[in-house]
Amino acid sequence: MKNKNVSVSVITPAFNSAPFIKDTIESVRAQTYKNWEMIVVDDASKDSTCQIIEQWARKDERISLLRLSQNKGPAESRNSGIKAAKGRYIAFLDSDDIWLPDKLSLQIKFMQKHKCALSYTAYRKIDKDGNPISNTIKVPEIVTYKKLLSSNFIACLTAMYDSKILGKVYMPDILKRQDYCLWLKILKMGYEAYGLNECLSLYRVRSNSVSRNKIKAASYQWEIYRELEKLPLRKSISCFVKYAYFGYKKSRM
Domains, the chain, ranges and CATH? Predict the structure, then answer.
């Protein structure tokens, strides 16, 4: 199948994203791969996020806005976008992150070559003003369910899954780490995820980011092992030790 015959749905949850959403949308419009739709799901923002998205939707019919009447959180926002998606490939891009121009083109070719259900890529970190704050964060070539338990090697802004293989798979409605639990759900079906070690995305780190609270993040990770994945205590401890090790390594990048 040639690239031009394959469509991609880009799912973007947004909440009070006015300072960054323009850059995010522009990075999708700048893709060298053109056969996409971008579904921006506004989670009851109180700033000018919706007005900015509507302006872009009038300029480009590939962009659409879904408005939630009440704040539901990122899981429900993303799931609303997945439900509305028409593309074969489902890709994720948060409302403050950025894709580089060849992201979709190279990743779709990569997925077709490997016939994989889920893929991800390398990426770099930027600060709130868009300045680089890390080198390229490399990724493993293949991730299995067992390996993913030790660390989330798949950054959400780099991930893409093939709904022709998987059907539409939704994120669990939990407060945090919904994306990680989605990858676990897919790999638990017996699939492997394939990594493209080329930097194609820029992850924006903000001081108020929930992922920066390490103690809370560790607590949520433990709950995932015990409550969602139902791992035995000894297995949970083993996975948690590996999680702490890889978390330390990530913090040094």
Answer: 3-251 (3.90.550.10)
